[in-house]
Amino acid sequence: MKSPGRGPRLAARARRLEISPTVAMAAKARALKETGVRVLDFTVGEPDQPTPRHVVEAGKAALDGGRTRYASAAGLSELRAAITHRYREDFQVAFVPEEVTVAVGGKQALALLYQAILDRGSEVVVPIPAWPTFAEAARVAGGTPVFVPLAAQNGMRVTARAVARAITPKTRAVVVNSPSNPTGAVVRPEELLEIARLARKHGFWLLYDDTYAHLVFCPGGPPALQEVKEAAGGHLVIVGTVSKTYCMTGWRVGWVMGPKALAEACTALNSHSVQGPATFCQIAAAEALTGPQDVVRDMAAAYRRRRDFIHPAVAAVPGVACSEPEGGFYVFPDVSRCLSKEVPDTLALAAKLLEEKAVAVVPGEGFHAPGYLRLSFAAAFEDLREGARRIAAFLGEHAPAGRARE
Questions:
Q1: Phi/psi of residue 284, each to 5°?
Q2: What per-residue confidence (pLDDT) applies to 218?
Q3: Peptide bond before 145: cis, by omega within 30 degrees of 0?
Q4: Which pLDDT belongs to residue 400?
Q5: ω into residue 129 within 30 of 0, thus cis?
Q6: CA-CA distances (angstroms) from residue 355 to 15, 277, 330?
Q7: DSSP H helical ranges for 92-225
Q8: Strands 362-363 and 373-376, sheet pairing
Q9: Per-residue pLDDT for 216 more than 70?
Q10: 173 near 204, Cβ under 8 Å?
Q11: CA distance 11 to 13
């Protein structure tokens, strides 16, 4: 007999989940701001620029034109065509609209994919440091994440050798996120090609998350993907979004792109859940993908300038080591030499940084990388300058004696 007074039981999957560390730190920063403190918030990975005007106008025109009814669970045909067009233009890879399912942002695209490919006990290889949702969404779908630590001396770039060591008969997918959130590392084309060959040989999905692919600072830009697709032999699946590239985080439009059977499975799942993004948002996304692309080039150049300021500023702090990010808009410094008995981990360090200097960053524990901090440089230059000053002062005050880098 049940004890009186006990509430209904939550599902095990819900009890196991933890809130995103980025969301948690952003909430703490927001609460401090509400008390009147000027907080420099470098937590959330969100462009500080507005959505381009022509994209906003396309959304408005859709509303004014009555485009407010349901869209197909696969997504609007014009948006799916726009997605495949953009990949042909920018990544030299051929897909057809029937191989695309539109989702409510990149997170739901990942959730759809995992539900379509994972059975209970299926393994997903996740190179770390990594965005936490790669692992948590796999657990929700019944899968088991298998973490592969990446070498700091190699800039934390994913390699085929590191992946190969983690493959088992249960491996259903390998995640490659390039540029990486949180490190900014960019996979080398030859490594991506070799991982594609492994996918074909062992029969797992190569899950290529290209959320930040247009924000690449190293020579050559993002890799061409047709050879990768052919090498994978039907095992390449791309998870993408307009959120970062077009400053459309709140519009919530993403996609899964892969073999037609996979797209159809994701569409069926969509039809029994959210159906898809709002119709006017899909129309705006199609405009973003097919309209002028100078805004993308300008934004990438702006982030490169910010990277060129914030990386040396952070790397110069005594006791800190930091690889130069090759893309995206994060720096991921190793501050382990600044920890102490009083401040034993970066959870405590980030909390004290917020409390003492009103600077919000995300602790590395959330990315399976204790001893690191993630700082988003999608912020105004004046905030980056002041933030770098406050962080340097804080770490100087808290670095244990004898630990400072010479």
A1: -65, -40
A2: 85
A3: no
A4: 61
A5: yes
A6: 29, 38, 22
A7: 105-117, 133-140, 160-164, 189-202
A8: antiparallel
A9: yes
A10: yes
A11: 5
CB count, 10 Å around CB of 267? 21
Give, in order, the Cα–Cα distances in Å from 142 to each of 112, 214, 236, 260, 274.
13, 32, 21, 23, 20
Task: For residue 310, report the phi and psi dihedrals to the nearest 5 degrees.
Answer: -75, -35
CB atoms within 10 A of CB 165: 10
Q: Token match 């440091």: residue? A: 129
Distance CA 122, CA 139 (A): 10
Q: Are 117 and 90 in contact (CB under 8 A)?
A: no
pLDDT tens readout for residues 1-31: 455 557 788 888 888 877 777 778 888 888 8
Mutual orientation of helices 77-91 and 279-290 as an angle, nearest 10°? 30
CA angle, 375 as apex, 373 and 379 as ends, to 5°? 170
- Give the DSSP letter string of 289-351: HHS--HHHHHHHHHHHHHHHHHHHHHHTSTT-B-PPP-BTTEE--B-GGG--SSS-SHHHHHH
Q: Which two tokens stand for residue 27?
A: 């909430």
Nearest CA-CA partner of 325 in 207, 245, 212: 212
Q: Alpha-carbon distance 254 to 141, whole Å?
A: 19
Strand 254-257 and strand 100-103: the pairing is antiparallel
Other C-beta atoms closer than 10 Å to the C-beta of 198 total: 20
Mean pLDDT of 384-395: 95
CA neighbor of 207 nearest in space, from 162, 252, 167, 240: 240
Element (H, E) at 390: helix 381-398
> Where residue 162 falls among pLDDT bands split at 50, 70, 90?
very high
pTM here? 0.93
Instruction: Sort 99 into a burial class: Cβ within 10 Å, 0-12 / 13-18 / 19+.
Output: buried
405 vs 141: CA distance, rounded Å: 44
